[in-house]
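Lab notebook, bench 4. The sequencing result for the construct came back, and we need a structural model before the next group meeting so we can plan mutations. Quick request posted to the team channel:

Model the 3D structure of this chain.
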Amino acid sequence: MSSVLDWLVGLMRTIGAPGVGFATALETVFPPVPSEAVLPLAGYTASQGHYGLVAAITWATAGSLVGALVLYYAGARLGAERLAGLAERIPLVHARDVERAMGWFDRHGRTAVLVGRLVPGVRSLISVPAGVSRMPLLQFAGYTTAGSLLWNGLLIGAGYELGEQWHLVESRAGEISNVVYVVIAAAVVWFVVRRWRRLRRAGR
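Done. Here's the predicted structure in token form:
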């Protein structure tokens, strides 16, 4: 894995922010390459002046969307069962990973695409059940972009701030996910309360 990360660093330093997009698309389609390592590393490389922080987050989000669309169409064309079989042939990936993503989607519905992008181990493969169920493409793209933007911004920003200690982010990825869950839950509560108040005023 270290050789892959070294190659990605060289790519990002050579072609700049578009290299971040390529790296993120790769880690989305190929789960053994963890975003918890790639994204902080992209932030660290940005801190060295190879490209800007905003450009890194923008390209990373675009790469996430491209990778997610590849898996979405794979789910739509091949189905969950065939993809689970293929997963067994990929190093460090198993059929149960696809099954886990399918279960997550079944429990949470379409919002799983948004929230699932923030869950290590689910974030990449959540696109598969979305494709299998033929989730509306624009809705899928919107949820994927929103979730990816949040996740990418947090991890790239952390790597940017930590500099040479960027590797500390990977060990804290679970904690970062928990913080994001709290933020999303608070946002949902705020939206519901605000909506309820408006309806209540309109009914007077």
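The longest helix spans residues 53-87.
Will bring this to the meeting.
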